[in-house]
Amino acid sequence: MKRILSNIAMLALLAGFISSCNNSESNKNGNRGALASSAAEKVYVAPGEHDEYYAFISGGFSGQLSVYGLPSGRLFKVIPVFSQDPEKAWGYNEETKPMLNTSHGFVPWDDAHHPDISQTSGELDGRWVFINGNNTPRIAKIDLTTFETTEIIEVPNSAGNHSSSFVTENTEYVVAGTRFSVPVPQRDMPISEYKGNFEGALSFISVDPEDGGMDIKFQLLMPGFDYDLSHPGRGKSHGWFFFTTYNTEEANSLLEVNASQNDKDFIAAVNWKAIEEYVNNGGGKKMPARYAHNVYNDETHTATSTMKEEVLVVRPEEVPGAVYFLPTPKSPHGCDVDPSGEYIVGNGKLSADLTVHSFTKMLDAIENEKFDGEAYGIPILNFEDVLAGTVSQPGLGPLHTEFDGEGNAYTTFFISSEVVKWKLGSWEVVDRQPCYYSVGHLMIPGGNSRKPFGDYVVAMNKITKDRYLPTGPEVTQSAQLYDISGDKMELLLDFPTIGEPHYAAGIAADIVKKNSRKIFKLDENKHEYATLSPADARVERDGNEVHIYMSMIRSHFTPDNIEGIKVGDKVYFHVTNHEQDYDVPHGISMIGANTSELLIMPGQTETFVWEPKQVGVWPFYCTDFCSALHQEMQGYVRVSPADSDIELSWSLGE
Amino acid sequence: MKKAGIIMIIGSLLLLGLFKFPLWSIMLGAPQYPDPLGMNIFIDGIEGASEFDIQNIDGLNHYIGMKTIPKPEEMWEFSTFPMVIGSMVFLGVIIGFLGFLGKINHWWFIGWFLSMSVLGILGMYDFNLWLIEYGTDLDPNAIMKMTHPDGTPMTYKPPLFGHQKMLNFDVDSWPHTGAYFMFIGMMLTLAAFFIGKREWNSKAIVKKSTQ
Hints:
The complex is a heterodimer. By secondary structure, chain A is mainly β. In chain A, about 10% of the residues lie in helices and about 45% in strands. The model of chain A is unreliable at about 1-35 (pLDDT under 50). In chain B, a hairpin with a 2-residue loop joins strand 4 (about 160-165) and strand 5 (about 170-175).
């Protein structure tokens, strides 16, 4: 009994010690005494421990989405999205090839830009990440139970899908705006007739609240400017969407000069609720348009691609009062709305100042018709009447702003290569920290929501030069992690990224990790060519097409000896992983197959095609080190001459 | 013997917990299995602690040549044990009821308790025999034939009770909820004996004094 008491006393002592440690942690900012923890301690996540946040960092021109942990900066996974990935057979196996289908055919690459996490009531719900393909306009949805891309929808009438893919506060829509204006519909015409003839489509893609299914609800066809970035209104401004524009000059050549002439470009404010109501009542016009809609199913483990034939378009003049222009100095890039929904920050990238508009003033200016002319019938609101304030001379080349939820904003400056912290309302600059180098976007977990998690900001740099060990002419781009929990920002960590870390979205790990799936259940596998029991393993011939129904489990394939294949056959390996244990994928690859390996998760079926060109006995093997007998996990296929009459046969252990 | 009879009935009925909860559990943890694999042993069969644990334990065991974990129809115990427990519950309730009515004395209670104890010990003995067979009757063509440092072949009998290190696995074998139900139930029947003894004797004294 005494011992128990002393144990309890010990525990109480420990608890007190731990909580006092926590106190000093939360006090870390104000006074940096000798006891303040070092940057290394703040980013150290001990072996076996988990990070506090997931960071989904765009791979930019890699076309993929990387998953990092914060604060450690450790890379967990690269999710293939728009680019083929031989490691995971994405776009190589028969199941996922349809995911990369477009109206232009199979496009094996894209430029992934702005991930955004789904929201409910303005807060991150961690169900899906959306990301845009910039080059061949597409929006992808990544399911955060499997961390796999499960849907890709092509965006017609669009080119340079850049002001995308941002979600409204209940994920009613994921929005995709075109960077390049183009002829709508596309047609053969002189480029020089751009002005007044090209149009810019802003697409509102509805998201099914149950399964996340995407569908283009309507496209708003705007004047032929470049639509650079966008963000949704939230809270009081929910129902509006804001887009930055540049090239309001409508230049079609040498844009670096010709699109930089106007003193002010615009932020377009779009009342999507008004347009939604208009189209719900039968408004808008259906126009022919070809675009692919690709959906991956977790039960069939197979994607389908459907070509859509028309899209609903709306022009601003059809819905009076739905679209306004807010004059904003000098080719603004980021267009960012603070957590309250009141302030709309225009990051005029060629301006020395940051312009902040007020939503309340905007409504007032609309009501009282404080207009300063119009452009293509769209009222231009008077600059002075919508301006909330200006952050004066904060740096050079403002690009993008996020918020900590405590009244502070953080803006990146590309040219002066820094992050600047300033206060909403008083517009005073309170801190600045250098970036190494040429920072583009920045990300605060939950930064595009009503409730940011204001602990860290991640700055994403385009240039690193001397920051890491050199690797020839091409060196890594990078992310930098700053602690923003105090008055002053503190640089904690600098870590390399994949491709170009264009933008990112972060979320508290607790929201997501509990939903992460461990396996696919074999008895829920509805793949057309699944082998659900080793007894069903077989080989079937249909002309010169041969289908191998194969199963795999530690540490063998069923069957592993196959004869009767002939030169000129097209051999489909349909391979089902029979493991039902966490983290036991198997791989398979065949010598000379003109494709990638397969990497098959427990309970999943995948297919690769092999067209044997030479007579012989050819081995295949498991490519993922699965078990102590991984090296024994192999098999042979006998390939006979095309005119041979050897019957198909297959076996295991005979 | 009203109180003792009721306690006897409750004690016997607690054995019904064995139809709902596992009697025993054997958990296997290893560095690669931070969430241990486990089997819950019920009186009518063996289930995985998680959905696919049995399949995964069998998958691992095939390396060292162990047989797969038996299905209910593969062992007579899984049909006999429920009948034995059911009968003992029935008997216990009858005895308790008759005791409640004063038709029989407390010695019937201890009789039931001792019978149940003997059956329990026999059950444990049988369970241990199965563990021995399961852990030692290995496939001669096993993938891995491990030996002790002295050259004798390694066997894999899980402990009947407690913890044991087996190759890379930490094996823990402990009674589960059903066993606790049975233990508490049997303790109640023992208590029923002592309480019944007092009640019976005082009744006898009352009888005597009124004569």
